[in-house]
């Protein structure tokens, strides 16, 4: 059978229309009847009724979630295993995703039994066979095993523009190989979804019981004094959905780390006699998690234990001292964001993954802003002036991403050393 497929030419004028352009769809052929026609095997249906059609890969089924875009050029496996992406669908602006396969090392979740947090991914180019010596599993098989739905052939630049202009939409991603979808029902499902605002998404991803963490990373860390296998500081990491690379860097910085569930009481934590408290990253609305996390943190701050927070941990520390957080329109997700460290005047290129931000106007007098985003001026870090505590919105563990901000782990170690002295 002879047929012609139009090469994919994104039509940027059509960006904001109801039907966004997409690449050629797979053909379905009926040999007996002698026809072949394009069939969408996956769709993304936004709450406003916009429908994007493409080719499905990964898990088969449907999921409702919030759509964000991530501008990282590498590290898709780390992104898709980061627990902070709970209830989200990631649109990758980098066109080639999946071509280095997947492996046993590049995982960010520490909770291997838990279901994947991210619900789906959207890419431009169809995924290929893996081409990398580290790959142990095909991307498609890996996504299926983790119940993550994939949609390719989408003009991801147009979708990113839509998110930038209208904000992160709620949507249903659906993959059915027969290409049969009840679009009206999917529109209704997307429109009826409650969204992430107001959702505490920590319970499914936090550790169920305290455990010790001892592993270091594969690559040597930057800007850390070598620990020579010696544990100089005892750190309790409160797990709101912690990334593995953060725990590895704490270990490399010379910390003996005990990971505790998000609901561990201040008394239980204090009984471990920590030199420092780490507040982890995690999914969902910080103001909801704060309802139980803030009293615990306030109690620990009273005890003047040095404290360091990352991302959700940063937001919850800010809430604990009386500041407020708000939902962002498009959020920050990528590995190329410039951030200014106001304490040194240096600019670092950082990894980002957040959809909420600390409202800097609400910061009380006993805290100062230490970092800010040079993309949009949003707050990226605070330090308390009356307690040994600081936190950052970006991801100094940088997995994936540039490692400019590794120095923050050293800053935490220095804070613990000063407290001991
Ligand atoms: N990576 C994170 O810790 C994300 C924090 C929070 N859930 C947000 O989206 O802003």
TrEMBL record:
Origin species: Beijerinckia indica subsp. indica (strain ATCC 9039 / DSM 1715 / NCIMB 8712)
Domain Carbamoyl-phosphate synthase small subunit N-terminal: start-end pairs: 40-174
SUBUNIT field: Composed of two chains; the small (or glutamine) chain promotes the hydrolysis of glutamine to ammonia, which is used by the large (or ammonia) chain to synthesize carbamoyl phosphate. Tetramer of heterodimers (alpha,beta)4.
Keywords, in A-Z order: Amino-acid biosynthesis, Arginine biosynthesis, ATP-binding, Glutamine amidotransferase, Ligase, Nucleotide-binding, Pyrimidine biosynthesis
GO molecular function, one term: glutaminase activity
PANTHER family attached to this UniProt entry: CARBAMOYL-PHOSPHATE SYNTHASE SMALL CHAIN, MULTIFUNCTIONAL TRYPTOPHAN BIOSYNTHESIS PROTEIN-RELATED
Source taxonomy: Bacteria, Pseudomonadati, Pseudomonadota, Alphaproteobacteria, Hyphomicrobiales
Chain positions covered by the region annotation CPSase: 1-230
Gene3D superfamilies: 3.40.50.880, Carbamoyl-phosphate synthase small subunit, N-terminal domain
Name assigned to this protein: Carbamoyl phosphate synthase small chain
Pathway where this protein functions: Amino-acid biosynthesis; L-arginine biosynthesis; carbamoyl phosphate from bicarbonate: step 1/1; Pyrimidine metabolism; UMP biosynthesis via de novo pathway; (S)-dihydroorotate from bicarbonate: step 1/3
């Amino acid at each position: 059978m002879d047929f012609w497929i139009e090469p994919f030419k994104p039509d940027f004028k059509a960006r904001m229309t109801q039907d966004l352009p997409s690449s050629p769809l797979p053909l379905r052929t009926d040999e007996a009847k002698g026809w072949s026609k394009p069939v969408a095997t996956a769709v993304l249906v936004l709450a406003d009724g916009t429908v994007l059609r493409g080719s499905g890969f990964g898990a088969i089924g449907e999921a409702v979630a919030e759509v964000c875009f991530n501008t990282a050029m590498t590290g898709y496996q780390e992104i898709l295993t980061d627990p902070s992406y709970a209830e989200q669908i990631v649109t990758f602006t980098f066109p080639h995703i999946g071509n280095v396969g997947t492996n046993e090392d590049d995982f960010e979740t520490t909770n291997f039994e838990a279901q994947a947090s991210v619900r789906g991914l959207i890419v431009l180019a169809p995924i290929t066979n893996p081409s990398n010596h580290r790959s142990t599993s095909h991307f498609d098989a890996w996504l299926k095993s983790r119940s993550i739905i994939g949609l390719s052939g989408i003009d991801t630049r147009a979708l990113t523009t839509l998110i930038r202009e209208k904000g992160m939409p709620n949507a249903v991603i659906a993959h059915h190989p027969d290409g049969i979808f009840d679009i009206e029902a999917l529109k209704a499902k997307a429109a009826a979804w409650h969204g992430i605002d107001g959702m505490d998404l920590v319970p499914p991803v936090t550790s169920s019981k305290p455990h010790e963490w001892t592993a270091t990373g594969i690559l040597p860390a930057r800007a850390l004094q070598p620990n020579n296998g010696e544990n100089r500081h005892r750190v309790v990491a409160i797990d709101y959905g912690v990334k593995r690379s953060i725990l590895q860097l704490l270990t490399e910085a010379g910390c003996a780390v005990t990971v505790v569930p998000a609901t561990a009481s201040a008394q239980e934590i204090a009984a471990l006699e920590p030199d420092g408290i780490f507040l982890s990253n995690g999914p969902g609305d910080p103001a909801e998690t704060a309802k139980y996390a803030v009293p615990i943190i306030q109690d620990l701050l009273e005890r003047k234990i040095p404290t360091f927070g990352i991302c959700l941990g940063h937001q919850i520390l800010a809430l604990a001292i009386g500041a407020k957080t708000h939902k962002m329109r498009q959020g920050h997700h990528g590995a190329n964001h410039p951030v200014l460290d106001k304490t040194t005047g240096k600019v670092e290129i950082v990894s980002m993954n957040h959809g909420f931000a600390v409202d800097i106007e609400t910061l009380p007098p006993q805290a100062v802003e230490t970092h800010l985003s040079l993309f949009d001026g949003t707050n990226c870090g605070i330090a308390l002036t009356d307690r040994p505590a600081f936190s950052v919105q970006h991801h100094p563990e940088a997995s994936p991403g540039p490692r400019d901000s590794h120095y923050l782990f050293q800053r935490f170690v220095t804070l613990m050393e000063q407290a001991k002295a």
